[in-house]
User: What shape does this take?
Amino acid sequence: MTELSGKVAVVTGGAGGIGRATVERFVEEGARVVVADVDAEAGASLVEALGDAAAFVQTDVVDAHQLQRLVDAAVERFGALDVMVNNAGVASPMVRFLHDDFADFDRVMRVNVLGVMVGTQRAARYMKDHGGGSVINCASIAGVMGGSGLAPYRASKAAVIHLSRSMAVDLAPYGIRVNCIAPGNIQTAMTNYDMDAVTRFTQPLPRRGQGRDVADAVVYLASDRSAQVTGILLPIDGGTTAGPPPSQVKLMLSAPSDDPRPEPSS
Assistant: This one.
């Protein structure tokens, strides 16, 4: 498989979860990959398993200097940078809005939004003088759909979606494509809930998604097959953002109403 043969990629948050699956798929498809992560042990272990096609650079994406060092390391090690995957992200606590003290707001925004913004900028500064490239940013269906709790996280992922579209327009004259993915309920260290129940009640496709499902979509957006694709949001969610499964609609329609709110006056 040589979908990405000759390409050099950087994947932030690449030592685990969706990032790791993406790194592995990139290497399978012939790319050389720089894995960036704060977890040095996991990152070093991954690149050791992948061999000469991968390298590890410990990186905290909230630090612009470290992101620049990451881009420079990719060019120095592999001679180019064609693909930037801004995957690193953190969650916020599952706290209802009225009880949230927003103590994690700054950290969530700096990692999830500023890290994407600066990572794209530093990669694009190289790409604009070297034939363009592809940037893929990782948002979430939490940035598309409203819901209870996770207010800082939801806000950060919505920001990534809009930011990606704006950067796509700004960078298009340089041959740089910017796209955004929105994974749904994929089992990672951040999704510590009953995945089977969530899939059954909220996802039309009765199939549990894997990191590789997301990675396959990232491969497409990184490849030359998507040469005419920029500024899009691609949900990878089993249909969750399209609407609830038929079984849940049937259940809702058959349930008796216990809404305590009064009927609106005419």
Notes: The radius of gyration is 20 Å. Strands lie at 8-12, 32-37, 54-58, 83-86, 133-138, 176-183, 233-236. The chain has a mean pLDDT of 92. Helices lie at 17-28, 40-50, 64-78, 105-127, 151-171, 195-202, 211-222, 246-254.
